[in-house]
Design a protein that fits this description.
CATH topology of chain B: OB fold (Dihydrolipoamide Acetyltransferase, E2P)
Number of helices of chain B: 5
CATH topology of the largest domain in chain A: Gyrase A, domain 2
CATH architecture of chain B: Beta Barrel
Number of strands of chain B: 9
Shape of chain B: globular
Order of helices and strands of chain B: EEEHEEEEEHHEHH
CATH class of the largest domain in chain A: Alpha Beta
Oligomer: heterodimer
Structural class of chain A: alpha+beta
CATH class of chain B: Mainly Beta
Distance between the termini of chain A: 48 Å
Number of helices of chain A: 8
Distance between the termini of chain B: 10 Å
Structural class of chain B: alpha+beta
Order of helices and strands of chain A: EHEEHEEHEEEHEEHEEEHEHHEEEEEE
CATH superfamily of chain B: RNA polymerase II/Efflux pump adaptor protein, barrel-sandwich hybrid domain
Radius of gyration of chain B: 13 Å
Strand order of the largest sheet of chain B: 1-2-3-9-8-5
Strand content of chain B: 25-35%
Largest interface: A-B, 20 and 12 residues
Strand order of the largest sheet of chain A: 11-12-13-10-4-14
CATH superfamily of the largest domain in chain A: Probable tRNA modification gtpase trme, domain 1
Radius of gyration of chain A: 20 Å
Number of domains of chain B: 1
Chain lengths: ~350, ~120
């Protein structure tokens, strides 16, 4: 296996800005520039900018594109109007999640999807196999695009300062113009947009957004921001052994429209009832920050699961995490304990998102 | 980077201030800067005896958990309870209000063998 670590077109910009670089999904990415807490707060209160060039970009075009996508993805592609995007999942035949992605419809027969960096090698052959053929052209352009996410309450202002001649698309919308792709979405729970450009102009745009007020932010706060709003991270909270119904993503699974890969399993699972479910867990008092893989115990001290994600929430100043628990422990308000280095910290099953705007 | 002249240092980024037969220990300015925002401190157990280099507690930031070590062999005689309420004292004042524990000095030679400020500056540069 080729284990060479990849660098984005923004690598030297990160170094100039004092970014602390770490390996992530085969890429060298900034984990933080100043501090996770400071960057997290910048996104919640003002605006931050993230390099997301490691993520994958694929294009699906042709008269049969919509129909073929609808037979592969869980959400109802036929409901997607031109210029809009939808969060959706790609499953294996057992109904397990291969990847979660956002699919945009940029034209009558043109679709664009953003896939997880760690999943590109898994997704592309799978999509190729199920999508490409008569009436559909599938192109993986993951190597050709730089990408950045501008996130926070000031993101729209910053957009109009930097791109005064363009109009930011509406929520979940997509705009393709002048060789750029702009999507009004993100992974932080804040307003914002993702901005895709060719590599040679990426650093220039990144710096323009910073000059307009966006603070450079690393993967550290990207994780704490997404967890506060209960967004799952594939590879941690989602996996090929777990269905999206168990992950609490039923809203993005359309069981009453077209058939898609893995649907039968989900229909059966729904009829039989779930045996486990992903829940939000929050400390009831102070405690050592919860982290992935820490054991979750029932109030009686029996181990009932492990955290798939966990963090000290910078906004709530409290430990939060997610775990798959047996269904009889998933009711909101259920008492649990998180075990950290032999000590047990009391916590409760809580409703997601953990953090809600103002 | 602040490396006070009156302290001794360990390769685990602890500082040591000798006060009679007791040593006051905390983590260095460099260490707190690397860790960034400290959000939780698991303090050493009082009255417990450790060998030099033993893990005695944990300092946690949003990003990661890092062990705190026994800078020298001895018995923990006092811990900074203020850190339970305000772990960020370690960031704000690593050589003052952010001190972590006091340990009895059993072997003078261990203290003498710790790094001088100049050595520690070289070590982190």
């Amino acid at each position: 296996m080729d284990e060479v670590i990849q660098r984005t077109a923004l690598h030297s910009t990160h170094e100039e800005l004092g970014g602390k670089m770490v390996p992530f999904a085969g890429w060298e990415m900034p984990v933080q520039y100043s501090s996770i807490m400071q960057e997290h707060t910048a996104v919640r209160e003002k605006c931050g900018i993230f390099d997301i060039s490691h993520m994958g970009e694929v294009f699906i075009t042709g008269p049969a594109a919509g129909e073929r996508l609808n037979a592969l993805l869980t959400n109802d592609v036929s409901k997607l109007s031109i210029g809009k995007g939808q969060y959706t999942l790609m499953l294996n035949e057992q109904g397990g999640v291969i990847d979660d992605l956002i699919l945009y419809r940029s034209g009558e027969d043109s679709y664009f999807a953003v896939i997880n960096a760690a999943c590109i090698d898994r997704d592309v052959p799978h999509m190729q196999q199920h999508l490409a053929g008569d009436g559909v052209d599938f192109r993986n352009e993951s190597d050709d695009w730089s990408a950045m996410a501008v996130q926070g309450p000031h993101a729209a202002d910053i957009f109009s300062q930097v791109l005064p001649d363009m109009e930011l698309p509406p929520r979940n919308g997509i705009l393709e113009k002048d060789g750029l792709i702009i999507c009004r979405t993100g992974y932080t729970g804040e307003d914002g947009f993702e901005f895709f450009s060719p590599h040679d102009v990426a650093a220039e745009w990144f710096k323009k957004f910073i000059a307009a007020g966006a603070e450079p932010c690393g993967l550290g706060c990207r994780d704490s921001l997404r967890l506060e709003v209960g967004f799952p991270l594939n590879g941690s909270d989602l996996s090929e052994d777990i269905t999206p119904l168990e992950s609490g993503l039923g809203f993005f699974v359309s069981l009453d429209s077209a058939d898609f890969l893995g649907k039968e399993i989900l229909v059966k699972q729904k009829a039989d009832g779930l045996k486990r479910k992903l829940v939000g867990i929050q400390y009831t008092g102070k405690g050592a920050p919860p982290r992935a893989h820490y054991a979750v115990e029932s109030a009686q001290g029996e181990v009932i699961g492990e955290l798939t994600s966990g963090v000290f929430s910078p906004s709530l100043k409290s430990g939060i995490g997610m775990a798959y628990l047996p269904i009889d422990h998933t009711k909101i308000g259920t008492d649990v304990c998180i075990e950290v280095r032999g000590k047990r910290f009391p916590a409760k099953v809580v409703k997601k998102p953990f953090y809600k705007k103002g | 980077m602040n490396v006070p002249d009156n302290l001794k240092y360990t390769s685990d980024h602890e500082w040591v201030l000798v006060d009679g037969d007791v040593a006051l220990v905390g983590i260095t300015d460099h260490a707190q800067e690397e860790l960034t925002d400290v959000v939780f401190v698991e303090l050493p157990e009082r009255d417990k005896t450790f060998d030099q280099g033993d893990a005695v507690g944990v300092v946690e930031s949003v990003k990661a958990a890092s062990d705190i070590y026994a800078a020298i062999s001895g018995e923990i005689v006092e811990v900074n309870e203020d850190l339970s309420d305000d772990p960020s004292l370690i960031n704000a004042d690593p050589y003052g209000d952010g001190w972590i524990y006091k340990i009895s000095i059993n072997l003078e030679s261990e203290v003498e063998a710790l790094m001088d400020p100049e050595d520690y500056e070289d070590f982190i540069s």
